[in-house]
Design a protein that fits this description.
The protein is of the alpha/beta class. 43% of the residues lie in helices and 10% in strands. It contains eleven helices and nine strands. Helix 4 runs parallel beside helix 11.
């Protein structure tokens, strides 16, 4: 029996060692990736943000606020930290890593909607988490969702199984062939084209989603930290295409919640939910997102309105 056990150990040991080495090498490769999903996390963790102004939010931040346009207007380095499909769960992790590893920003523009303080069962674009399973904060955030299982957390390389895009990026980054897309700049990536009107309701997702009360303390922790660090913040409610402004069943409830928090923390709100921009079809890619021209227009509007609140910008 001892011989059998010894032989099993001798057989498995090199396999396990190779798996751990592959896991380490894959994660290290993605640390060098220029793909926007990894690059933003890498810049935050490696202290490469160095911005006076940072943008928080989901894809309605990342695809709609153009840092280059903003920088040309207010002459302040600006970085877009928007995370596609993400809520306060990962946004708080991003915030904590930002202030721990980078110079303190002067202003945070939080592009926020009712999805920001909500939770889904599945983690959108889970590939972005793969290189960071050595970080407790990332693992803790991932465990709010049902996407990963115990083997993903504890066995090497298991979490990469079936994730072809991530594996391709590992190879590209490992070979030094990962390059910045011409559609991205400091976290911002733009949408091309005009609005998809036909079947647009399918783009909306769950329009009846509500603020999740269990996540409010997490949201408040971010606001408390911002206040303690004396960082200015602005809440920005993004535009929604005019045919869908009444689609969000609980939008009014969300605005009541946001208004209470804004008053409690003395944070101004800029509300573009029904702004005139929402009526210009040519500026939208889908009901929730503007295209590249729309991002330019929206960014200019937001910057000008912020400058009215904070003239130093």
């Amino acid at each position: 029996m001892r011989v059998i056990i010894r032989n099993i150990i001798l057989f498995l040991a090199p396999i396990i060692l190779v798996a751990y080495l592959l896991d380490y090498a894959s994660s290290r490769a993605l640390y060098k990736s220029q793909n926007v999903y990894y690059k933003v996390w890498n810049d935050v963790q490696q202290g490469n943000v160095n911005a006076d102004v940072v943008i928080y939010g989901s894809s309605r931040a990342r695809k709609q606020f153009n840092p280059k346009v903003a920088e040309d207007m207010w002459q302040h380095p600006t970085y877009n930290l928007g995370l596609d499909g993400q809520t306060i769960i990962l946004q708080k992790v991003m915030h904590d890593q930002l202030v721990a590893n980078n110079p303190k920003p002067k202003l945070i523009v939080f592009i926020i909607d009712q999805f920001s303080i909500a939770q889904d069962k599945q983690l959108f674009n889970a590939d972005q988490m793969l290189p960071y399973f050595n970080r407790k904060d990332m693992v803790s955030a991932a465990k709010y969702y049902e996407t990963f299982h115990w083997a993903d957390y504890y066995l090497p390389m298991v979490r990469f199984a079936g994730r072809r895009e991530a594996i391709r990026e590992v190879i590209k980054a490992g070979l030094g062939q990962s390059q910045l897309s011409d559609k991205q700049y400091k976290g911002f990536t733009f949408n091309t084209g005009r609005i998809i009107v036909q079947g647009a309701d399918n783009v909306m997702g769950n329009d009846s989603i509500r603020v999740d009360s269990s996540l409010i303390p997490m949201f408040k922790e971010v606001l408390d930290d911002v206040k303690e660090r004396n960082i200015k913040m602005v809440f920005v409610v993004p535009p929604l295409h005019h045919e869908h402004t009444n689609s969000y069943i609980y939008h009014d409830e969300f605005m009541q919640f946001l208004t209470r928090e804004a008053l409690a923390y003395n944070i101004p709100i800029l509300n573009y939910h029904e702004h005139p921009i929402t009526a210009v079809d040519s500026l939208f890619r889908d009901p929730q997102h503007v295209n590249i021209k729309g991002a330019e227009v929206f960014t200019e509007i937001v910057v000008k309105d912020i400058q009215k609140i904070y003239p130093e910008f």
